[in-house]
Amino acid sequence: MKPLAIDLFCGLGGWTEGLLAEGYDVIGYDIECHEYGDGKYPARLVLQDVTRLHGSQFKDAVLIVASPPCQEYSYMAMPWSRAKQIAQALRCKGDFPPGYWGSRTVERLNELFNTCFRLQREASDAAGRHIPLVVENVKGAQPWVGRAKWHYGSFYLWGDIPALMPIIPSRQATKNSGGSWFNISHTEITGNNPVNGIKGIPHAPSGHWTNPAENGRKCGGDWFGPGTDSSAPRRQSSKGPASKAASAMIAKIPFDLARHVAAAWRPKA
Q1: Do 235 and 31 form a contact (C-beta atoms < 8 A)?
Q2: Going from the N-terminus, what domains does the chain have, and what CATH number goes with each?
Q3: CB 39 within 8 A of CB 103
Q4: For residues 254 and 199, is the Cβ–Cβ distance under 8 A?
Q5: CA distance 118 to 129
């Protein structure tokens, strides 16, 4: 039997492609089916809100990988006044009246990130053994969830990181390797600039770029808008297929990174 891996917030399946190449059976979980032309999730996909899962159903897995949405972290890492105000308010700094930011809290900000580790604990308890977990997010998450153990360009990793990790290809070490969704110029996304955009994606499929903050899955939603429901980004759809495709492609884990992690945690025969 092939070893089973679980891919949470799987998107287009960057993690999954590396896992499949190393001989895993993979099940991906997301709130939305990402399918754009020839691009689609390459394994079995379960459409479900990850926060409503219980880790005991993953007791047969040998590895869990996850890429929870990162828009909130990226936004607050920006030098914009509103981004700084929100970050200060969450840290209880500055002269903000009580309830100024509604029900936004650090706990709500970190909900999806922390869900990954809750599911790992529950899965490990049910299995009676430790099930490794690798979580990917952006550099801007570190002030809120703790320092990452390693990074591959703009892809920052937490959890059970293998002792040996691959060397970052020079093409990944772009000027935007700081890990922000918003450090992407229009020319980089459309392919009119020889420098790739962050996360190793040279251009958007449509040749047209829409601000990632308008997209609904990996980044997007209204967490920073008038609403107070921090789950909104994972529940909303984006405004159009081209925008959604660009967002999903930017979020996709590089194949070299995914395959390396998959090989490192694959059970020995």
Answers
A1: yes
A2: 4-265 (3.40.50)
A3: no
A4: yes
A5: 15
